């Protein structure tokens, strides 16, 4: 049954289209100033890794968080593109045989399958590097202060104490299942840190006050947790056809998740509570925060 | 026969000791602000990859280039540490089985041997990310303008159009030997870009004029080329009985090098010419540039 997209879905898709157009541009031009040459095969692998049909939720959060404070939408889009490069680099590396060893992502061969392992490693490395390039580039219409803050925030969200560290804990979890606090920490790092960054980055792009920035950061933490709970719930309950990938995979590897520990009813109640908390955090902005709250509900309720 | 270290060697070692102390500090503290937790095993792998007894030539170039213009030595040391993190990340990833497949580096097991492949991938990723963290961190006493320029310069030197792209060309060279121009481009990217960055970064740290910055950049290009020629010459002449033939490890893999193409005499003449060019570029600074020129000679003449 086909259904009409909601206004929210249309907005999400419109932003994703703009983001993809920018990523296409960033991964076709070149060599840029200070670059010597761009190897076509490496560029193709980066494009394969990043132009993958994703929903582009993280960039959407940057854009809508910036919009809440009337931030420059073009600058927000560029920071969203940088963030998406970091997200996609992590997918390319996580899919490697030495890591999660996945051959398929979104119905397409993963980068090391479509190309080869060495190229996938370098494509991930280059996407991560490109992210910082995009933030600092003259085309990103922000002050040097904003760029410096964004570089630092992004590096902390992605590095040893954030996403990469979370992946390290995740690998360790295959050997020894973490306790509940361990699961919470792992997920706050592995998926939470970048989602938190997305929301905080929007506030930085818009030059929002420290209070506003702290609120968006906290909002990002809540929806980051909701994102992971919804993901793990899907993994626990959905059938492979809906998901487009092997389900039950994380659980089969012996990794604990909160839905696996507490069950579906607990998880759904927790998701409802997280949406309420998110709404409470943004309550001060009234109707202006409606899109962000709809994003929170979308994240918590998504079924694919 | 033991020989006394020269004044230059002592200076190089003193700076290396300062750099190692800073890297030790950067890879022991934590979690920092915005970080959630640092997985001990990942930190240990990063330390293994970076605290490897290297000569720290690249940071030395940052420090001495900054000193030429009376730049803040502490800030230069921090930018040197960031650069060393990028250099060492590239070694960790290049050593992986899918890349150059090396088990030993400087007499110690490589990171994927001492730990495992997944950890080595994540350690490299985290070192690269940490580099940008260090540049942007509040502890780095530079203006936001300088930090933004350094982030952009470093990203361009390390990414698709620089070091990572050079490694991609290097992998392709195993399948099909590049022509002479191809070798020059490959090496300008793979090893040249970071050495060029080292010299230019010193000028940025010191807030030097555009002319000074351009001079240091050009100096960096010359010694980057000298570095690679000396390296390839060493590789070529490692076995005297077969000198002049393609016998070294790179050549055995079918990779062309300029010394392999043109022979030892040509290479030595080229190295002498490069030192003369480097001296000419820095001539305007008179005796103040003596340390940098001694570094150029050291790079061109090193025999280990």
Order of helices and strands of chain A: HHHHEEHHHHHHHHHHH
Mean pLDDT of chain A: 93
According to CATH, what is the topology of chain A?
A: Farnesyl Diphosphate Synthase
CATH superfamily name of chain A?
Farnesyl Diphosphate Synthase
CATH architecture of chain A: Orthogonal Bundle
Uncertain regions spanning at least 5 consecutive residues of chain A: none
Q: Largest interface: which pair?
A: A-B, 67 and 67 residues
* Beta strand % of chain A: under 5%
GO biological process, one term (chains A, B): terpenoid biosynthetic process
Organism (chains A, B): Metarhizobium album
Protein name (chains A, B): Probable farnesyl diphosphate synthase
Keywords (chains A, B): Isoprene biosynthesis, Magnesium, Metal-binding, Transferase
Describe this structure as you would to a colleague.
The structure is a homodimer of 304-residue chains. Chain A has 304 residues and is mainly alpha-helical. Chain A has one domain: Farnesyl Diphosphate Synthase, CATH 1.10.600. Chain A is built from 15 helices and two strands. The longest helix of chain A has 28 residues, at 210-237. Chain A is globular and about 55 Å long. Chain A starts with 6 loop residues before the first helix and ends with a helix. At the A-B interface, helix 2, helix 6, helix 7, helix 8 and helix 9 of A face helix 2, helix 6, helix 7, helix 8 and helix 9 of B.
Which descriptors would you attach to this protein?
homodimer, 304 residues, mainly alpha, Farnesyl Diphosphate Synthase, 2 strands
């Amino acid at each position: 049954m086909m259904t009409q997209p909601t206004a929210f879905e249309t907005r999400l898709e419109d932003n994703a289209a703009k983001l993809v157009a920018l990523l296409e541009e960033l991964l076709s031009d070149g060599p840029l100033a200070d670059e010597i040459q761009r190897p076509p095969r490496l560029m193709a692998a980066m494009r394969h890794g990043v132009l993958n049909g994703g929903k582009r939720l993280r960039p959407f959060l940057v854009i809508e968080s910036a919009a809440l404070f009337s931030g420059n939408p073009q600058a927000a889009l560029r920071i969203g593109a940088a963030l998406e490069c970091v997200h996609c680099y992590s997918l390319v590396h996580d899919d490697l045989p030495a890591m999660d060893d996945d051959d398929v992502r979104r119905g397409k061969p993963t980068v090391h399958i479509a190309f080869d392992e060495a190229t996938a490693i370098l494509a991930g490395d280059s996407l991560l590097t490109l992210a910082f390039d995009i933030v600092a580039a003259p085309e990103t219409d922000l002050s040097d202060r904003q760029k410096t803050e964004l570089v630092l925030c992004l590096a902390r969200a992605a590095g040893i104490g954030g996403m990469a560290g979370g992946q390290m804990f995740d690998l360790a979890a295959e050997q020894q299942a973490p306790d509940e606090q361990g699961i919470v920490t792992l997920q706050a790092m592995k998926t939470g840190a970048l989602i938190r960054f997305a929301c905080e980055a929007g506030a930085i792009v818009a030059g929002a006050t420290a209070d506003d920035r702290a609120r968006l950061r906290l909002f990002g933490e809540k929806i980051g947790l909701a994102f992971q709970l919804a993901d793990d719930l899907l993994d626990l309950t959905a059938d492979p056809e809906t998901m487009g990938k092997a389900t039950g995979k994380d659980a089969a590897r012996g990794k604990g998740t909160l839905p696996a520990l507490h069950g579906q009813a607990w998880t759904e109640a927790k998701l409802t509570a997280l949406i309420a908390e998110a709404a409470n955090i943004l309550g001060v902005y009234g109707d202006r925060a409606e899109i962000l709250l709809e994003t929170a509900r979308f994240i918590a309720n998504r079924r694919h």
